[in-house]
Specification:
The structure is a homodimer. Chain A is of the alpha/beta class. Chain A is globular, with a radius of gyration of 20 Å.
Chain lengths: ~300, ~300
């Protein structure tokens, strides 16, 4: 067990299908220590709870408050996970109460992990000093969150913020959600790999010679000047730009923050994106909205999760 | 000059490119009388101001407060019209101050006409009893407004709510805004007429025999069983449904209200729209969102314009 932390320390947890990340923060929200472990996402709800408690012990227990961002649909009133495709054993699990009692009755706040990341960037990252922000996390899939007037916009049933499942291409490629032409089906890591696989069917393509089809490899190939790889990024960027323009025209947020692995491709993705949103968005909405890269990286979620305890 | 109205009556004005509509309301927001005139939208700012004042006189002057919804981009702090494609002489005109002084110093509230219509339906129409609502006005173009937590979401520069200019079809038809594949370019009155003109190039098509190409005529032909006309409505409805699904997934509003002439086509438009949003929207967002027809018709805007004066 780690050293006893001063009264008032806060524990933030980001509970995903791949990793459990945790961080200890001062009562003012300064990050002091981090821990991470593989997520036992297929084992059992008790194993997942155990992984969170192990991270808490590693960081020093007990904190004065715990915030946890969970990948899944939550019932915030009951403190229960309703459904989680990435953490299946948690469906129906009373996570808030179980965490609370295991940690000596400490107050626990739960939120969706994408909303936690959005709150983190909003309060401590690229969205600081803005009143409204949309986060787009461009990873294997696309997550995100909508912050309006300083608060997550949850919607009528807590289902708002699915920015990755805005259709930008009617009759476009099939999406993981069952729809077609969603932003995620056009721009995400899996969409890029799908298109790279199709391109690699031509054995003359340099893409066919890659040892593995990943966004990093495809970015390297594009930067080396390969036309096929450049075309993949060009198309993904253009679709991203259309999605960004839609958010500008609909919500006119003060900033749109791009996070996740794909955003690291830089101008390969962002130059065509910018061309698309400059063409598609109204001048007034565009001129009043900054598009920025995220600044908290993979630690946005733990920071957002403790936000309810901060002044 | 009309009879003197009791102290506390409110005047609502809907100032558009085609008509000036006005209505007198009780201090509780009950509509008591209406007036309308052609909008002198191309003449001069003074002529437009004169038309509003004439409507006010016809209804009984002076009211205790005036709310005016204006088709255009407004500077709400200065009470000025910034730009109005439908009322060009108003660009730069200090409408709020000129109305105030012409009506004896009465308080005047200005807002965008689409936002006024949204507020009207929200407080007195199909959106009553909801906390969040998106209005889609399906007319020659598509207007709309976003109401969140009971208030118009204006965005960082008052440019939010352009629901008609959300792209649902990358590389789709050109839009009036300069973009491509906007909802308006796929579903509006002008988009329907454009597609009907293309269909009418085939002289064997029943559409070619219509005396004029209007949404009403095309609806009549479709209801009579013509396959070509039905296909036009089917496509428009499908695109509308994708737009509705995008709003559900992004904002999860408690209701989405459909207004405007095209909404009167009923199931010709709404049946394919429903199929599309049921396919494209997340179940949780869809199940918590009612899609309704507007109930105030063309008088939504005047009602919304006086909302700032109501308790």
């Amino acid at each position: 067990m780690g050293a006893q932390r001063p009264k008032g320390a806060l524990l933030g947890v980001d509970l995903g299908g791949t990793q459990v990340k945790a961080a200890l923060f001062s009562h003012l929200g300064e990050r002091e220590a981090v821990a991470r472990a593989a997520s036992p996402s297929r084992e059992s709800a008790e194993a997942i709870l155990g992984a969170v408690l192990a991270a808490a012990r590693e960081l020093g227990e007990p904190p004065a408050g715990v915030g946890v961002g969970v990948a899944g649909v939550l019932d915030l009133r009951e403190g229960r996970v309703v459904q989680s495709p990435n953490l299946p054993p948690l469906s129906g699990f009373p996570l808030r109460e179980r965490l609370r009692s295991a940690l000596g009755g400490v107050p626990v706040q739960m939120m969706n992990d994408a909303n936690a990341a959005a709150l983190g960037e909003f309060h401590a990252g690229a969205g600081q000093a803005c009143r409204s922000m949309v986060l787009l996390t461009l990873g294997t899939g696309i997550g995100g969150g909508v912050v309006l007037d300083g608060k997550i916009w949850e919607g009528a049933a807590g289902a708002a913020g699915e920015v990755g499942h805005m259709c930008v291409q009617a009759d476009g490629p099939e999406c993981s959600c069952g729809g077609r032409g969603c932003l995620e089906a056009c721009v995400s890591g899996w969409a890029l790999v799908r298109d790279a696989k199709a391109a690699a069917r031509d054995p003359a393509s340099a893409i066919a010679s890659l040892p593995e089809l990943t966004a990093e490899r495809l970015a390297g190939l594009a930067l080396a000047g390969d036309a096929g790889a450049r075309a993949l990024w060009e198309n993904a960027g253009r679709m991203l730009g259309i999605g960004v323009a839609n958010l500008m025209n609909l919500l006119n947020p003060e900033c749109i923050v791009l996070a996740g692995g794909l955003a690291r491709a830089g101008d390969l993705l962002l130059a065509p994106a910018r061309r698309a949103w400059e063409h598609q968005a109204f001048e007034r909405a565009r001129a009043s909205c900054q598009v920025r890269l995220a600044s908290l990286g993979e630690w946005a979620g733990v920071r957002g999760a403790i936000q309810p305890f901060l002044p």
